[in-house]
Amino acid sequence: MQQNHLPLIRHRLGFSDGGALSSRTAMQEEIVTLLALLPSDADAVHYRQEILEHNILNKATASNRLKKFTFLRRLYALDPQVCLFREMRRLYRCAVDDVPLLIGLLAMAREPILRECLTMVLGIPVGESLGRAAFEAWIRKHAPGKYSEAMYISFSHNLYSSFHQFGYIGKSIGKTRYRISPKTGIASATYAAFFDWLEGRNGIVLLQGPYSQALDLSADRHIELLQTGSSQGLLKVA
Fold this sequence. Notes:
This protein is mainly α. The chain contains twelve helices and no strands. It has helices at residues 6-13, 28-37, 44-52, 62-76, 83-92, 99-110, 112-122, 132-142, 149-166, 186-198, 210-213, 219-231.
């Protein structure tokens, strides 16, 4: 495969250059509402109609509905013709406690800054405090001089809230939140393996891929989940 074809192939699969998160958090409540209420075979037109015409997200104005739809489509695709969204929709029916992580993996695939910030998050040991200030320090170091002061603060809030929604940051204890491991399951483990397979990994090497590493699992537990997924026909494990 020629290197100059890779960006086009990644785009067709559903990977994105991002840019959505600068204005909002990952809006997980809204995407979960859509997945719960729309049929699994809903097409892109159906998602648009439900948000804009039927106001399934209960937004007060037409302009607000359009903003929400535009953001959700940019971050999550909302189109079964997009491979990454279609596979998430397939696995959603198998997800239980790991719905936040399953959706978070899709967001990370389509928003590069989330993937890059995940390295910082995983570098914080489980049980240590992890607050908004850490995200502001990270974005300032990651993109020095790129944003206004207000934008750095806004961006850090969006990153902080998004990782809380994905399950990497626990509930407040006093005024402090702590790093936790996200809840995983066969759906999220299968989805992460799918991403890493798309990027050219196979076999045991999958466990070292960036999306599989995002699960924050021990190797034994990781393999157990993949084997369970294989027994349920979600993927093939040798």
